[in-house]
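Spend some time on this chain, tokens included, and walk me through the fold:

. . .
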Amino acid sequence: MREIDKASVEAEEVLVARAGAAVARVALAMLGGAYGRRVVVVTGKGNNGADGRVAAARLRRAGARVRIVEAAGPRGRLPVVDLVIDAAYGTGLRAGSAYEAPDPGGVPVLAVDIPSGVDGLTGEAGAGAVRADRTVTFAALKPGLLLSPGIGHAGATTVAGIGLDVGDASMALVEEADCSAWIPLRPRESHKWRSAVWVAAGSPGMVGAAQMAARAAMRAGAGTVRLGVPGIHVEPTFAEVVGSPLPAEGWAQAVLGDLERTRALVVGPGLGRSAATSAEVRRLLSEAPVPAVVDADALWALGSLGDAAPVLGARRADTVLTPHEGEFRRLTGAVVPADRVAAVRQVASATGATVLLKGSTTVVAGPDGRVLFCTAGDQRLATAGSGDVLAGVVGALLAQGLDGFRAAAAAAFVHGAAGHLGWRRGLVAGDLPDLLPAVLDRLGDPGRTEDSLAARTLAPSVRRRTAGPTGGVPGPSGAATAPPGP
């Protein structure tokens, strides 16, 4: 955003006036009118403070009683008012800088651009960072508004256009409209082999992981699914899944010999971590000519990034890696840093794969540097086997023709939205596959209304485009008035 600000042909005072007007509009909506309402605006020295002062002037003209409090002044509880506007620092606060917000005393808080004390790039927040009920941000979302803990400090987020061109943003938020555009309807002349998936997964005691991945792939649109568990004869629990026995040794060759009519491969859930299994996984990925999802124990089999990069870099078909934080740590040799975006981009660039880093906000990075965020889903998905279901969904979308970048992001959204259709307590991963069709059916309904699945998973006012610290290629759909992206 700093680079976008510098490149703007608009005068700074014009941009500040537009930003302040946007803040005033949201404030009026929160107050239900201005006349006689009491407002405190906490202002800093930079443009964030200037935005707040413009908003204060507009609210005064509308009849509100407004008091401006300098952010650098004494701390303590603010006067009893109807609304506090946080215009102290926004994105101008340097990373790692501490900020102790004044106590709003339980009054609703509206943050300007980003809650003060929250890092705009990483979402890091100090103990004294502002907790807002709403945030109005300008031109584009900031990563810190989507990543934890920042997303929890922002409240409902509104993006206000102020005349800045964010068309070159390299990061974006995936939404329902994007998934609707990407996931194809099955054509009339289709047949089961046009979207066939092979699932190589499971081991003694972990057959359930393989079963869930296979069931999820079927429910997510795969025309047929073949399931093989090395060394174990397994009867699929989902009648439509075809069991394909695999030998305990040399099973990679058996899978490779059966891929002729397969469109995508899922490998890893519950597969086990023996040295022999690792060798088979590496061979399978090295030689498989179809797109592949590499999950769970298959990620373990790849070892460190230095070991994984030659195997994955030599693949000609798309590859999607789906690590959780522990698997990411094994791959990179370090804990996931605060700057999750940079870390995921680095792995994607090194391997040539799309990387989906699971978390309360999922971060998907392509090898070309593009990044998509997915905030669909909630704590209901924090249950054993949820990742196996996600792997099956990614595999099904790859088989239907999506590239790895879109397949990973769309799968994360569909998986999260399915979770929202389940029980708030007691939801288990085995419930998720049967919730997927309701989500996918809605995505494929050309007559759907604004009462959308996205409204259940995202703040309705959130827009798609997200600006990061560098330029890049467009995100999926752009802002509300932007043309469709890739």
